[in-house]
Amino acid sequence: MAQSLNHRQALLILNGLPVVGPVMLRRLLDAFEQDPIAILLADRQKLLQVQGVGDKAASVLSNWSDHFDLHREVERMKASGIRFIAQTDEPFPPMLRETYDPPIGLYWKGDYNIDRPCVAIVGTRRGTLYGLGVAKRFAAELSRLGFCIVSGMARGTDTAAHEGALDVGGKTVAVLGCGLDIVYPPENLELFKRIAVAGAVASEFPFGRRADRQTFPMRNRVVAGMCEAVVVVESDAAGGSMITARFAGEQGRQIMAVPGRIDQASTAGCHQLIRDGATMVTSVDDILDELRYARPTQMEAELSPDPEGPETEALSDLEEAVLGCFKGGELCQPDQISQQTGHSAAEVSGCLMGLEIKRLVAKRADGRFEAR
After folding, report:
1. Rounded distance, CA 259 to CA 281, Å?
2. CATH of 2-68, one of 1.20.1250.20, 3.20.20.70, 1.10.150.20, 3.30.360.10
């Protein structure tokens, strides 16, 4: 059957075999003069001569049809409106092609092809309101300036970045750590659909591959590789965004980090990156300066107000006092606010409810409140 394969089908098979990673693929292609069909036709002994190819990998390659259903994969791609962009194809992200170990190809859903500079905005899944607001506004402003926003469609910061780009009609690409037949996280189904219409959703993984500890770092290297810069908004010291930043450094990309409070774990990673030499950014202009892009003269130098931000309303003396407890980004428990303001717990609880309705504060999962 391998004799009847074309070049693209052979690449699709090699990409879908679970034991063949990017490094092994590169070595195989080098050994077989960049001919994927020759790899699938090769005998076991010749395969074993390639560095890194052991008995298991040689067996899978020699009997690939037992491990990968090509016909089923192609039919599912057609039904889902997904194409496979090989590394040698013109639509393949140009900066990703230049990296040390780019994927052999990408499953790609959406008509958009990369046609402008890309900036990745990444961060924690448990972002604060401050961090989510920064990610969304940075993404919106960069989109207006002609950048494509790349992220991983994870909860929290990634979601805010994609939404920021979409809300202003910009371009965004979501890189998933699973097959494109799986929406992860599932609550981002509508976001997945929006991105596929206005931008693109991409993955190097075949249908059916679920996200795990191996796929997420592989996804992160693709995010970093596609972009001129990676901006980390909030991240724990050991967060996934730190892996993306590490890949960015290895690939010669700019690493930028937004500073935050020194007593919050969600900013420890950003501060570590800054300490290690990443550029501290507090505005989109900082990003433009680092990338040496000039802001168009007709654009405002400052970030435009969030169109979905809270409206200004007259506040009572109690509301002013309660909001004063959140100065400096403080996260407060109701009893802490009661003690600081001298008002009863019942009064503070009622006030916090009113401020939530006015979208001036929000309650976190840990029970504390945070000002918007």
Report:
1. 7
2. 1.10.150.20
**pTM for this entry:** 0.80
Assigned token pair, 337? 């606010």
Q: Are strands 82-86 and 105-109 parallel, antiparallel or unpaired?
A: antiparallel
Full pLDDT tens readout for the chain, 372 residues: 555 789 999 999 999 998 888 888 889 999 999 999 999 999 999 999 999 899 999 999 999 999 999 999 999 999 999 999 999 899 999 999 999 889 999 999 999 999 999 999 999 998 888 899 999 999 999 999 999 999 999 999 999 999 999 999 999 999 999 999 999 999 999 999 999 999 999 999 999 999 998 899 999 999 999 999 999 999 999 888 999 999 999 999 999 999 988 888 889 999 999 999 999 999 999 999 999 887 765 444 443 444 444 444 678 888 889 988 888 777 888 888 988 888 888 888 888 888 887 778 888 777 788 887
Looking at the domain that runs over 317-371, which CATH code has it been given? 1.10.10.10
- Going across the sheet that includes 279-280, the strands are 82-86, 105-109, 200-203, 171-175, 148-151, 118-122, 229-232, 254-257, 279-280
Instruction: State which fold the 95-102+105-291 domain adopts.
Output: Rossmann fold (3.40.50)
